[in-house]
Each structure stands twice: as C-alpha cells, then as structure tokens.
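Reopening closed ticket. The problem is back. First fold of the pair:
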Amino acid sequence: MARKSKYGQPSGKPSTRLWKPALYVRLSREDGDREESDSIANQRDMLAEFAAAQDDLAAPAFYTDDGYTGTDFDRPGFRRMMDDLRAGTVNCVIVKDLSRFGRNYVGVGEYLEQVFPLLDVRFISINDRVDSFLDPRSVNNLVVPFKNIINDEYCRDISNKVRASLDLKRRQGKFIGSFASYGYRKDPADHSRLLVDGQAAAVVRDIFDWFVGGMSVLGIAKRLNEMGVPNPSAYKRRQGMNYRHPASDKLDGLWPDSSVRRILRNRLYTGTMVQGKNRIKSYKLHVSEAVPEADWIEVAATHEAIIPAELFERAQALFTRDTRTAPAQKEVYLFSGFLRCADCGRAMHRKTISQPYGDYHYYICSTFKKQHSGACTKHTIRSDRLEQAVLEALRHQIALAVEMDELVAEINRSSTRGHNAKRLLDERAQLEAEREHVEQMKLSLYPDWKAGDISREEYHQLKTQFEQRQAGLDGWIAAVQARIDEVQNGVDETNSFLTQFVQYRSLQKLTREAVVELIDMIYVHEGGGITIQFKFSDAYAAAKEYIRDHGQTA
C-alpha cells in the first residue's frame, strides 16, 4: 500500500508513470489575498516540499504570477505554463488550492473538465485533496465546483467593495490614479492630493495661451517639438517615474497633436478633479470602456488651478467651431469659425487670388461655392476690408464699454447710492415683518379649527389664502434684495461686458485672441455688409439698465 505525505496525498501511485510537474503559484491583492500563508514564497516552499515527497514526480518547473488576478487566465506565468503543457515539457499541474489556480468558476471548470483531460494533464490541488490521476472522482466531486463558486463569489464581493471604496474617494475629490496628470505631481505627504509641477505647468499655460491666441493644435505640437520640450511620457520618465505609454517608443519624446488636444480638453487644470472617465466592464472582463461624460465624477476646487476657468471655457468654445489652418502655417486664419453667410447660415469659404501686383484674399459663401446654383449668392467680401470693418466695430464697442465703466464707477462712488440702499433695506424689513405676521395668522388657524371657531372648509380656504400671500411676499422680498445687492455692489466688478471689453482699450490691430474673446459670430450680407454678434449681450443690457436706473441720482 502506498505511503502518504503529511499533506494527506498518497506519495506513491498504482503505476510506474513518472510525471513532469509544473508548480504554479499566484498572488493578487486585488482578489483579497492578504494572508501570509498565501505569499509567493510560502506557496513555493509548500509545493516544492510536496513534490519532493512524491515518488512519481520528476524535477519540477516553477511558474509564478505575482500581482495577477485570478478572475481571468490572461497571466504571463499561466500562459507560459500552458505553452509547456501543450509542448509536453510538463504534464502535471500542482497548486496549493483551487483559488491559486483561478477564481473564475466557469474558467476553472473548463480547464479541469475539458482542457486538461484532452492534454492528458494531471491536476493536483493539495489543500483540496484533489488528484485527477490517483483519484479521478475527486475532480468531479460536488465539493470542487462548489469551492470554485465560493472563490468566484469571494472575488466578486471584493471587487464590488474595492469599486465602492474608489468611487467614495472620487466623490471626496481625492486623486486615486497611479500617475498625476502632466502639470501636476502627487503630494509626497498625501498621494491623494495634487500639487502643481512648476516646469510642466508652464508648458500647459503656454498651450492654452497659444491655442486661444490663434495657433492650431498641430501647430502647437510642432512648436513644442522645435523647442525641444519632452512630451508628457518622456517628462515623467525623466522625473524618475516608472511610466510607460504604449506609443512612447514610437514617439521618441515628441509631442503628437493628440497629447496637445488631451491637455486642452482636461478640466483638471482649472482646479476641478475629474475622474471616472473609464471603468472596467466587470471583475471577470478586465476590459476598459469609456464612461459617458454625464457620469464622470467632478469635484471643484480640490487643488490649485493652473489656468483660469474662463480661459478653459474659451478653449472649449473654439473646439466647436470649424477652424482651418493656413497652408504651411501653424496658426489658424484670423476669422476661422467666426464667419457665416447672413442668408443661408453656412460658413464662409476663404479663397486666394494671385495677381502680378500681389495676392489678396476674400471670402465667399460655401453654399454658393459648392453648388453654383440659386441656393445662395456669393456674399463676397475681401479679407482686408473685413478685418478693417471688424476692428472699427470692436473699437467702437470697446469705447462704449470704457464710457459705461466710468459712469458705473461714478455711480458707485455717489453718496446717493448709500441713501438708496437704506431705503431699500427699510422696504425689505417691512415686507419681512408682514410675512411674519401672515405666518402667525396661518399658524393660529389650526387651533381655531380644533376649538370649533371655524369650519374645516374655512380652515383650508384661509390657509390657502395665507400661503398665496406668503408666496407673493417672498417674490417681492427677493426682488428688493436683488436691487439691494445691485446698489451695494454695483456692476463694475461682476459685469462681464465691462471687464472683457475694457481690457482691450488699447487695441490697435485685430488679433485672433480679441476675436475669440469678444465676438460670437460675424454674418456677411450680400454686397459686403456685415453684422457682428458680440458676446456678453446680457451683461451689456444689465450695465445699461443699471446706468439708467441710478445715473440720475449720481
């Protein structure tokens, strides 16, 4: 009778076959493997001791997957073992227990019941007392699939807990990524907090300024490469980080336009933590999928901003426009994305005419250019004349803003403003007192009803009347409060029309930045006339109304 080892397995065998064992060990913190007994070293020692005690096992080969989940079988050590099993280099798989082999119920069952029998591979799980050669029934025992289900369920539960924990940290505004985005670095004292990386942050600011100033995404990438600035991947490696991007070797430290575009699209640079853009499909399918933008987790003011929110929004607005880059140039055309036909609403097309005395440029309606039919007319206008007309209109609008800004400042300095504020505060106090009186009258209705002084119908009728009166008073109080805020604060510090246009008071030459910041759209009419739709029209109306309401008392 064959003797048994201390693990309870027979150390002999009923035949003289000598097996070539593959000792497989695996560990993954992701699966909740935290026990000391599951460490790679302990597993190796246990399997080596077991193999040495068996008379039917040759010298073993070790296969290790340290840090790989058991929910799938895409593991380097496991793949190498399967290659050797198919080649016949080894023909016996030994593991500490079924969970070390895998935590995927379906996958483990497929290997034990189909793949290994077809390859004539012996399978041994020491702690589970499974040996497909010495005791074939042990593999088909009901306990084996039951244990596999438990292992699978355990991993699913761990995965859900980990995902919930990470989502909680995201909602708290804590950074949970392995590497900080370009422009930031992790706080050495708290890895969930981001600090500005001065050197990279300067590049990020340049990228936004260049883009809003008229440079194309591709032009920015070329300029960075000409300046010798390393791309984000190369920069992180130079900082000593073990960072690797799939395209790193191909790029050789150069900036692709995709990296520039990714930076320009990243709200993180405004001080808002944006996470949860991608997720793993399931704990068994380790495939990343994009998350709809509406489901991203955003938390404002979690770290120092590199660029102002206003600059970021201007950059995003440019992405929605049809912008074209001049041939062999790095900058977009001055009016790219801002010119439309006043009749058909389509974009204007830029053309160049070469003459012996020089080149000149003009715009025509793209509908007319493509169809040459009655769908629309040319609406042609020369580029230099358009530029001059827009510059004059902008300067007029800027002069208006400067004048209004001075009037508002004078009103805000006026002593009458204080008297107006006091009058409004008294008015608000009277309204609030009246509301409190109505509230007390409403509260007294219930005791009157219970005492029999009024009927149920009278109670509900009077209650409705008091509530309607309160709603009217609430609206009145809110309107008075808005007027108080206006008188006390003025509009000079918050009015975007004034602040944005006044900063261009010295504008002498039309720039792409001025067009982007001050103009919403330019419409070209047949015959060369233009209509300019300026930004901040609501703020202009608010400033105008403020001057009208308070200017007489200044």
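Second fold of the pair, where the issue appears:
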Amino acid sequence: MKDGFVKVAAGTPAIRVADCSYNAQSCINLIREAWGKGVKVLVLPELCLTGYTCGDLFLQDTLLKGAEQALRTVLEATADMDMLVALGLPVRERLHQRLYNCAAVVQGGVILGVVPKTYIPNYGEFYEGRWFAPAPAEKVDLVVELAGQTAILSAHQLFAGGDMQNLTIGVEVCEDLWGTVPPSSEMAAQGACVILNLSASNEMVGKADYRRQLVTGQSARLICGYIYAGAGEGESSTDLVFAGHNMIAENGVMLAEQRFATGLVVSELDVERLAHERQRITTFPSKDRWMIRDFGMAVEDTVLTRPISPTPFVPTDQKDKQFRCWEILTMAATGLKTRLKTAGVKTAVVGLSGGLDSTLAILITAMAFDQLGWDYRNILAVTMPCFGTTERTRSNAELLAKELGADLRVVDISAVVTQHFRDIGQSMDDHSVTFENAQARERTQVLMDMANQSNGMVIGTGDLSELALGWATYNGDHMSMYGVNASIPKTLVRHLVAFAAQQRGGRLGRVLEDIIDTPVSPELLPPKDGEITQKTEDLVGPYELHDFFLYHAIRWGCPPRKVFRMAVYAMGERYPRSTILHWLKNFYRRFFAQQFKRSCLPDGPKVGSVTLSPRGDWRMPSDGVAALWLEELEGIE
C-alpha cells in the first residue's frame, strides 16, 4: 500500500441457489484466498449469500434469516483480517417493512455499513421490483439490526481507509452502473476514488463488450478505480446464464479481467496517481462529503502484479500501434499545414542530418504538403556536413531527399566553422562543448538565412525527450520557426519512421529502414575509421529509461522513489537497479537545470498527453532546483 498502490480483487464464488450456509463457506474460502494474496479490498457478487436467482424465495423469512446467519458466519470467520470486503445479500428494514438488495461492507468482523441498490431493474429478464425497494432518494440513514450488529443502511455513505491516504471507497450495485446518473458519479464528487460494484449481470452475445465499456468509461469519467464482481457458477440456468465477469479498471484502463470462471481477479490500484489527476483537472467536481465510515488498514508494501509498460508512449498492440502512428503523423502534419498556410510562406526548410528526428520532421512536412496540395520541390532539404558527419548519415540524408523529390541543398560548413574557431581562439584539438555547439549554431544560421531567401519557414527537428533532458544547443538546433516533433518522445520517433517506411515502401522505405538502424548521434565529434563515435545514449542514458521517467514523473507527478520502484518493476530484467538509479538521478538533474531552454521554445503541436511547451502543459521557473527530488533518491541501493 506504499506509494499509493492498493491490492484489490473481484471474486466469483461457486454458489448454490438459496443454500446460504454453503454460500457463506464458499465466500469465506474466496476471502481467505484473497487474504493470502495480500488483497486489501475484495468485492463479491450481488446477492452472493443467497444467489441472485432466488425469485419469490426472497419473500420467505427462512431465506432472509438464512442470509443473515450466513453473514454472521462470514464475519466470525474473518474477524482477524483487516481486508475490506463487500458482499451481497437481501436486507429487511423492519420499520418501513422494506426489502433491499444490499452490499454489506465489512472488515475485521464488523459491519461498516450497508449500501442498498438504487436502480431496481424491472424489464426484460429482470423483475427485481417484485421483491426489492429502491434505495431511499432522501439522504436519510436507516438503522438496521443485522447479524447481531447495528448498522447504517444508506446509499449515501463512503468508506475511508484511515492511514491509507486517498483510499476512499464508494459502493454501487449492478444496475446502478446502467442508470442515467449512476450513484458512483455522485460518490466520486463526494471524494470516492475507488468504486465497488456487486453485480449479477447475465450473459448475452455482445453484452460483455458493452459492460466492459461501461466499467472502463465510468472509471475514466470519474478518474477512479472501478472493481466489478459478477455472479457466475451456481446461479439458476432456468432462463439465463451467468459468466462471472470480473473486472478491475483504473481511469479508463482495464487492469485485469476474467469471464466464465470462478475465483479471483487480482491487481493493484494506484490511488496516489488518481488523486494527482483529480488535483490536476480543475473541472473535476468537489462537494461537501457524505457520511464517512472510517476503517483502519495498516500501510505496508504491496507486491505489484499490474501491467506497467516499459514503453508508456508506445502501444504494445500492433494494430493499436499502427493506428496511433497514423494519428500522430496526421495531427503533426495538420498543425504544420495550418502554420504554413497562415504564415503565407512558399517553402519549408528542413535541416536533414540522416538521423531519426530530422527524418521524421521531413516526413511530417511532406504530409503537410500533401494536405495543402503543394509540390515537394518546395521542401528545401538542407544537409550540412562538418567534422563529425559520417558517410552513412550523409548518404542517407541525400537519398531521403532525392527519393521524396525534395529540393536537396548541400552546404558544407567545415570552412566557416574553422574560420569561426580562429576568430574566437578555439583550438581545433579542443573538442569541448564549444567545438560541438558552434557547429549546431552555424547550421541553424544557414537554415534561417535560406528560409529568408526562399520566403520559407524553418521546421524544427528536436523531440520531446531531448527537450526534457536539454539535449539541444541553445540558439542552435533548439531553435526553429515551428517544431513538429516537440511533443513526440524518442521511443516513439523510431516507430513513426518505421510506420512511414512500411507505408511508403520501395527505395524510400529501404532508406528509412537504414536510418532507423543508425545509432542516435548529433555527429559533432570526428568519427573514427568512418564510424560514429559520439553516441547520445552513452552520454545521457538510454532514452527508453528517460521516456519512462518523463511519463511517470511529469504526466502523473509520481515522486522519485515511486518512479524508481516502477522502473525496476517494469525494466528490472533489462537494466540493473544501479543503472536505473544512476540515470534517474541524471534525469532529475538535467530536467531542472535545462528548464531555461524549454522556457523559450518555438511553437509546435501537442499530439500526446505529455508536452513541455511553456505556453501549454508545463510551466516551471528556470531557477528551480532539484535538491528535494534528488534527496528522496538518496539511500536507495
């Protein structure tokens, strides 16, 4: 439960209709199994102590007393567990002689509260209105005597986890999710970040997809964790089939799911992450809270099993990846098209190095020209060889321009940079930062002047990962007139170029594939035996790690120790802990120290959930220091 992770489960016990004693033991077995797995919040199905399909037996005192005794048995068997469990049973409120379809929320042998179902379905195969009353509309707490305890029966109550910050739980029952205004919507506004749903939704062709959309959609809309437990084996098959559809979703993402089986589905919710997102989104509603039922729960380490992608910016599903690549390229090209059109320019000027970033920039430029109906010959592809340029990258840059049909310009800047070194007293043998940056600034000057000559616009090539690390020469490749790659991380750039290679095919596709295989390098230091000696990832660290750090530290506001923990979990088999820690410290140092470069970025289109534009998603003082963040990483081995 540290770092906001709470292990949760949805479970489907095998039951017998109306056999409350058997059902109690089946629930207890599942509760014990969950407890053994470290689960802290468990949801069992609607009316699981009796069976959902009891029909008119719900009007029999014998069944109601049996359900109450079954709950008592469960409470006694779980008295030594601090796990919160929600399980379903019919509950009679004697003052008004009403029967409610309820979720009993229990912990450590104590009933914390009883939540009645709000929407009672009475259509199609459902006829609950024959037996059950809907939850009272008014916010009145009804007192019920249940299993030897006094409990509050109310649909307007939440359950807060005491020492476990941000763990506030709301409960709804099956049809409540299908309602026009689900109770969980109000619960979230009242502070609930985890919603439990006890369900007995029967199966039909196509219904699982719709149910899945409801669960993931509601979890996204409410920025919450949603745990859904469905009735399954043992329910009457007279007219219906129940498949035990269990789901755990978080903010629109399905973490775990199971159908047509009994047992548990287990994962972890990150309530710290949910709280951050709610805090960030200023339109998320907040109201005076309902009655809060506090429960104690020890804060301890949670063993992670939930999926955490090592490449959060890149979809793992191939079909989804293909669509995402098309969508990103189209968005970036559309932004550039609008800027070219409104600026009234005639050409686009791209500095082409033969590397991935400039390749992506010219491909996006070509797509923008397609949208405008412009001739590719108005794309000025400028390659500017100097001291570190290798034959491979120069050749690829020239081939790429020719295969696209762009106007290729070759401007060797070696002589002018050498003269500049003489002017400022820089030795050619001194390969310090001045040696490197002078080349980058000269290239930018060439591009800007050529844009002036041709009534054009310089298209920026720097990507999001470079901006995060400050891996750009200030007033060099840091500057352009429109940065099409500004919100595209390095791990995604490669996939976008690969997608373009597949789409274009032919000789152009083969050139793109060779560019993909070329080591990432600024090529500002002399090569050795014609090979690249200056490899970026040797200097600043693997971009795969930095993009992971960027996503979780900036998009989700995770503290450094949590970022480290998740990185080890996601990539520990590929990188030693010491390597991850080393580059994480480097990430924070560079991210803070290089903010001044991000404070004056050129315009560029936002295409994903993370961008560092000073006019958009990221506002940070250039004088901020990383001390607090680095201190948190001290002591980690």
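Update: turned out to be a display glitch only; the data is intact. The first strand starts at residue 5 and ends at 12. The first helix runs from residue 20 to 36. Please close again.
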